Structure formats: C-alpha cells, structure tokens
Amino acid sequence: MTAKILLLGSGELGKEFAISAKRLGCRVVAADRYDDAPAMQVADGREVIDMLSGASLSRIVRRHKPDFIVPEIEAIRTSELLKLEKAGHSVVPSAFAAHMTMNRDAIRDLAAKELGLRTARYAYAASAQELADAVLAKGGVGLPCVVKPTMSSSGKGQSVVRTKKEIAKAWEYAVTNMRGDRKVVIVEEFIDFDYEITQLTVKERASRGGGVVFVEPIGHRQERGDYQESWMPCPMKPAAKRAAREMSEKVVTRLAGKNGAGIFGVEFFVKGGEVIFSELSPRPHDTGMVTLRSQDLSEFDLHIRAILGLPIPEIHYEGPTASAVILATRDSERAPSYSGLEKALAIPSVELRIFGKPTTRRHRRMGVVLAHGKTADLARSTAVRAAALVRVR
C-alpha cells in the first residue's frame, strides 16, 4: 500500500524529504503557513494553515487521513500532535519528541536534568529584568553568554552578550524574532569551543529491532546562530566521537520511545576532549544538506526508510564533501531570480540546490552549494567560492 504523508512545514528540508519519499512511492501533502513553499512545489497536495492552530491541524488530518504525520519545523501546536497520536495517528518520530523539542527549555531540561548529559550552564528569563538577573546575579550564567528564544528557527533571535549594556538589546532581539506565543528566552554560558558537530542519529522501527544507526559526524560553522557551511569528514578523537554517539543514543531513545522512528540531528560543542550537548532536532538537520553528496543514502533517504520500516544498510561515503549556503541580501516580496549559476557550476565537482522560496529576506537561505575535494578543507573552500558566485536578485 502506498503511504500518505502529511508534512508539517515545507521548507528546503521538507522539499528534499518529499523527493525521497516520492521516490519510494509515497504520496505527500505539504503544509505550511505560506503558499508555494519549497516542498509544496514537489508534493501531491498542499495546505496553507496557521501551524500553531490545533483546530487547523486537526482539520487537515481529518481531511487527508495520512498514514504518517511528519513535522519539519518546531513552530507547531504540538499539544495537538499529542492528541492526534493518542487517537491512533502516527507522528514522526513521536509526538513526545516534537513536543519536547518545540521549546529549548523542555529539551534542555530533559537532557541535563533527567538524562544527565553535559550541557552549558543555563537559565530562563521571561523579562528583560529576569534576563539581567540570570546573567549578573551571584551564581548566574555570567558574561559572556548566549541568549536565544526558547522557540525560533534557523538561529533567529540568537545573540552573544559580552557586556552588561547588551543585555536589554539581546532581550528585545530574541523577543522580536521568536516564534510561538511564549515570551521566554534561554541564556547559557558561552562555550569557547574548538569546533561543533551534528551527529545525525537514526532510530529504526521496533519491527526492525528498534536499533540506532549513526551517520559520520558533520562539522559545521554558524553565523548569527544559523548554519553557513558544513563538511565531512570532521576529524574527532575516538573518545569524543564515542561520547557524542553515546549521548545521542541516550536522548534519541528517550524521545522516540518504544514505537518512534526517524532521524534526529543532535548538536554538540567539542572543546579539547570534552563533548557538550547543545541542541536537538527530531527531523533532518540543515547542516545535513551535505549528505546529498557525501554518501549513498542522504539524511532524507534515511528518514523515510526509518519511517516506513525499510532496511538501512551500511552507509557508503564518497570522500571529503562540503556544503555552503546561498543567502539573500535584502528583504523582498517579489519572486527572486538568480545569476552566476553558470559560473558556479563550471567549477569541477560543484552541484547546486536552489530551494524555490517565493520571497527573500536578509540572510535567508535560498540555496546551497555542494562540492567534493581531496580534503575536507579543499571541499569547503570550493563550496564557499562557488556559493559566492551566485547572486539572489
């Protein structure tokens, strides 16, 4: 029987997932808060709804009767997903995972307090004064620190605070850019890390043993709290790699529960031999776009295989690979056009993915360059050089 998937969130990650799902015969209905989102352009159907409306979510589930409900973003009324799952619907990887990771406070408390994972010191604040107290009070987080909305996407609202004067500004920036309806921020100690990674972790169906499959660690670089480039391989000491996998398996197993399945992007800071849990997404991860070239089964292929309960064989890697984002430089409600594609594609090993977003805003990801190289550093330099040649107009 062909599986029907209701995709909640239809950005670039949803688009690649929809393509992988359709290759395996699935029918995909893509939903988002705006029309003509990237995944809608390749899906079998579309829905434009308020993703934070439980009534709207329930309505489209009744209309389409999906076999699987697959969240692709955090900003969803996850309490409704819990109700839908209890009523017998299959939420990927689980409604609990979506609910716990919708807000940074819930997943951070689960990781640090329940599971005992090493995290940065952190606190929460519901006002500018509470934020100042959390930073400056005796025993507080201290300066410098990082302030983030408890719910946002692609690093929006995140800032580094280095002086007392910057605290109020960080609060305003976080509140302005947060999603959802909770004005709460998380403030955490600034980790002067050596590098950061994403550990893609796949939880298989219980019918296939409920095991965990790991992708090789992905190195990545962020600006403004948002991914700019990623690469594989990312050299790690064996002990650090083992620690990241052990922590990933622990948190993924807890979130997926007995019957959940799918891919998780688990982020870590690495400083010396210490591995520090940062964040987690219960879905394909933006830094994992590099897997579209680095291996035979991309993160999107792995996600749909896990969802459908299909075999996941050993992953074969294609050598050093990197990705670099193509960014818009200004806000516009007009459909964008692109120049420089021919120059970028003239560089050996380079591939492009233009996401098809209908509007632009400054620093919005509009596409990605993928490239190979003899080393990860050479692959990175090629990807960055090619991305710089593409202009969003």
Describe this structure in words.
- By secondary structure, the protein is an alpha+beta fold.
- The chain folds into 3 domains: 4-91, Rossmann fold; 121-189, 2-Layer Sandwich (Dna Ligase, domain 1); 195-392, 2-Layer Sandwich (D-amino Acid Aminotransferase, Chain A, domain 1).
- Helix content is 31%, strand content 26%.
- The protein contains 12 helices and 19 strands.
- Strands 9, 10, 11, 12, 13, 14, 15, 17 and 18 form a 9-stranded antiparallel beta sheet that branches.
- A hairpin with an 8-residue loop joins strand 9 and strand 10 (212-214).
- Helix 1 (12-23) packs across helix 10, helix 2 packs across helix 3 and helix 4 crosses helix 5.
- The chain is globular and about 60 Å long.
Brief overview:
The chain has 393 residues and is an alpha+beta fold. It has three domains: 4-91, Rossmann fold, CATH 3.40.50.20; 121-189, 2-Layer Sandwich (Dna Ligase, domain 1); 195-392, D-amino Acid Aminotransferase, Chain A, domain 1, CATH 3.30.470. It is built from twelve helices and 19 strands.
